[in-house]
From TrEMBL:
One GO BP annotation of this record: signal transduction
Name of the protein in question: TIR domain-containing protein
InterPro entries associated with the record: ARM-like, TIR_dom, Toll_tir_struct_dom_sf
Stretches assigned to the TIR domain: 583-713
PANTHER family, A to Z: ARMADILLO-TYPE FOLD-RELATED, TIR DOMAIN-CONTAINING PROTEIN
Pfam families per the UniProt record, alphabetical: TIR_2
Length: 719
């Protein structure tokens, strides 16, 4: 045995310096020969196998492990069978010292190979032969270390150990069971071909166990390292749920959220005072909050977080308390590493609040608390997740100040960063932030014109959001629709935005298809984008052509018998149509549908006057095709803009107001909302003087408006 080990170590030393496939084969052949001849002496066999596996585990980065002959070598069959035997033995009887050592070394080799050398090996000639493999897709005789070691029977046995033993029985913290199971579960998280569904229920059982609760209520956050028991229950099990349960996320969140949220009372009562100590290791609390955040991604479970758990406090209150800790705020301004304990804790805490705002009750609860002031303190955090969540919370909780967002360039880049990192992820999630939530909030924040411009100026901004709008694998309601609304908003930014949208052929094809569909919401948005990008310019050009045509017709109707010279002023008159009434003119009311009640009353008063036609659209302007809106403005000489915060936020109203300005219609502004002043784009359109319906009695304000209309019309006639 000693001679073999010395020989093997010589070969391993040669492999380290200058690896050769032949040397690797010799090593494995000699080991297999010895193991086959030592069946009667299992201790020696396990000892040799343990040493060889330990040494090979350190060579996992060498390419010879990818050789198909090496991968199919009998040595790895022996390793797999031995590992299965030890796993079975682990369940029923006490392991010897040699068993434990061999088990540990084999598991280390398996993990290193599956993580770093898990390349599928197949037959090159079959793969590239059109007759044997016509689609060049199906692989023959494929093998990988995952397939060698993680057979269905192995996974089933692994699950039984977790389900029937680990989740139920309490062992000393450094027991070999925890060390091996922790290592294997960590590996299972990273393997792609393994059936994670087989493992999920067993892992859920661990999180529901008394052991999980006991560990959190007894852990000393000052201890330098976690035990294998703590690592398995507090880190690997939650991580497995977060990363491997996407197809069952709703079901698992429903089952686990209530019992684990109920644990928060004991956990925070025991551990929150400790986390404020400078040298406390707070990963354990961070992992718990990270798991809660995973549950908060499921809409139906968010209501669970409203429950009061400790002295009348909710989990939301506990998160705010963490975020308001000055020492932690100072720390995240100095450190950017996501693995830094303070950064992780603050990141998970504010991400949890961010995700809970999608529950209306919690959103309004947060608006009443001093959360905005806390968020502003975190603007200068170095971690991108903290920056994103804090700035988003500040914006959405203070929507009336959306035009005054602090550092819009930082906010825009932050949103694009998270879209880029979620859009291709299988779970559409990055650092606890989901793509649908990003788009929902961006749909609000993009009302800020600086945000529109920053996205436009970023070369990847519009293409990224466009992908969300047109890629068919995304959910229509939660991803495609808000993305299309954002594209619509960005089209108001500048000419560059319009050109970028217009030049994106896939996006434009998608928008044109939507405009022809019977899809109420997306059809309206698509029509607005098409109008802004293509149709408006063409429509205005046609109006100018039509105006010239009419002027030509009028000139042809001049009667020349009353004057020698046509150019003498006053020597001709125009033949008017029967429906033209001298001294009368058209007035149009532009308003947001939410203000319809008061605008309808204004319309009634105006209609009683001796005007021409007063245009008042009964339908919600958001549902009207832009072409009809433009025709109405073309027929009007005066446009009355009834403005409010809702008017400013409506892109249909903006389209209407900007078109009136572009076509040089006279604009009279009417203020409808107390305490609101026009901002941004609206401020550029309306005059600084306006009729204020919020300060005058309604009839009196209408009288002022009517007087203003007559004065304006008289001024227009004198021009």
């Amino acid at each position: 045995m000693n001679i073999l080990l010395q020989r093997c170590r010589t070969l391993i030393s040669q492999l380290r310096k200058n690896y050769q496939i032949k040397d690797a084969k010799d090593l494995l052949n000699e080991t297999v020969l010895f193991l086959n001849n030592s069946i009667q002496n299992q201790t020696d066999g396990l000892h040799v196998l343990s040493i060889i596996c330990h040494d090979l585990a350190g060579l996992y980065n060498l390419p010879f492990f990818n050789n198909s002959e090496i991968m199919n070598h009998q040595f790895f069959i022996i390793v797999s069978n031995t590992f299965m035997m030890l796993l079975t033995k682990l369940t029923f009887i006490r392991l010897t010292k040699q068993d434990i050592q061999c088990f540990d070394d084999i598991s280390l080799l398996i993990c290193n190979l599956c993580l770093n050398r898990n390349i599928i090996s197949s037959n090159f000639y079959i793969d590239n032969n059109e007759k044997l493999n016509p689609n060049n897709k199906e692989k023959f005789n494929v093998t990988s270390y995952e397939k060698i070691f993680f057979t269905k029977s192995f996974v089933e046995k692994f699950v039984r150990i977790i389900d029937n033993d680990i989740a139920i029985n309490y062992y000393e913290p450094y027991h070999i069971k925890y060390r091996i199971i922790d290592r294997l579960l960590r590996l299972c998280i990273k393997l792609k071909d393994i059936d994670h569904k087989l493992i999920l229920d067993a892992v859920m059982k661990c999180l529901e166990s008394k052991i999980y609760k006991k560990l959190y209520t007894t852990i000393d956050l000052r201890q330098p390292i976690l035990t294998p028991q703590q690592s398995f229950f507090m880190y690997q099990c939650p991580k497995f749920i977060r990363l491997c349960s996407d197809k069952r996320q709703n079901d698992i969140s429903q089952k686990l959220s209530e019992p684990l949220i109920n644990l928060s009372s004991d956990i925070f009562a025991n551990q929150l005072p400790v986390i404020y100590e400078e040298h406390a290791r707070i990963q354990a609390i961070s992992w718990y909050i990270e798991l809660l955040n995973h549950f908060a991604l499921t809409p139906s479970t968010r209501v669970q977080f409203i429950k009061r758990i400790d002295f009348g406090k909710t989990i939301v209150d506990q998160m705010i308390e963490i975020l308001q800790t000055e020492s932690l705020i100072k720390s995240v301004r100095e450190h950017a590493e996501s693995f830094h304990t303070d950064v992780a804790l603050m990141s998970y805490a504010i991400t949890l609040l961010y995700n809970l705002t999608f529950e209306n009750k919690i959103f309004w609860d947060l608006k009443t608390k001093n959360v905005i002031a806390t968020c502003k303190k975190l603007f200068n955090a170095k971690d991108k997740t903290i920056q994103f969540a804090s700035r988003t919370l500040d914006a959405i909780l203070n929507q009336k100040e959306i035009n005054e967002i602090d550092s819009p360039s930082v906010v825009a880049r932050s949103y694009l960063y998270f879209i880029e990192n979620t859009i291709d992820d299988i779970t559409l999630t990055y650092h606890g932030i989901k793509l649908d939530g990003i788009l929902t909030n961006l749909e609000t924040i993009v009302h800020n014109d600086d945000i529109k411009e920053e996205i436009t100026n970023d070369g990847e901004g519009i293409p990224l959001i466009a992908r969300c709008a047109y890629e068919s694998n995304f959910d229509i309601e939660t991803i495609q629709r808000p993305a299309l609304e954002i594209i619509s908003a960005i089209s108001f930014a500048n000419d560059s935005a319009i050109e970028q949208i217009k030049e994106n052929d896939i996006l434009m094809d998608h928008i044109k298809k939507l405009s022809d569909r019977n899809d109420k919401d997306q059809e309206i948005t698509a029509n607005r984008i098409l109008w802004k990008v293509e149709q408006e310019t063409e429509f205005i050009l046609n109006q100018k052509v039509e105006k010239k045509r009419r002027q030509t017709i009028i000139k042809k109707k001049f009667k020349e018998e009353e004057a020698i010279y046509q150019y003498v002023r006053g020597d001709y008159h125009i033949e008017i149509n029967d429906d033209y009434l001298p001294g009368k003119f058209d007035v149009m009311l532009s308003y947001c549908h939410s203000d319809k009640e008061i605008c309808s009353k204004i319309y009634t008063h105006l209609n009683a006057e001796d005007f021409g036609q007063v245009l008042f659209h009964e339908r919600d302007i958001d549902t009207i095709h832009p072409r009809y809106m433009a025709k109405a403005i073309e027929c009007s000489s005066i446009v009355i803009i009834c403005f409010s915060n809702k008017y400013e936020q409506s892109y249909a109203c903006r389209l209407e107001a900007e078109y009136a300005k572009k076509r040089q219609r006279t604009i009279i502004a009417v203020k409808l909302e107390p305490g609101y002043d026009a901002k941004g784009w609206l401020e550029d359109i309306i005059d600084t003087t306006y009729i204020d319906f919020t300060k005058s009695e309604f009839t009196s304000a209408c009288t002022q408006l009517i007087k203003k209309i007559y004065e304006t019309n008289e001024e227009n006639n004198n021009i």
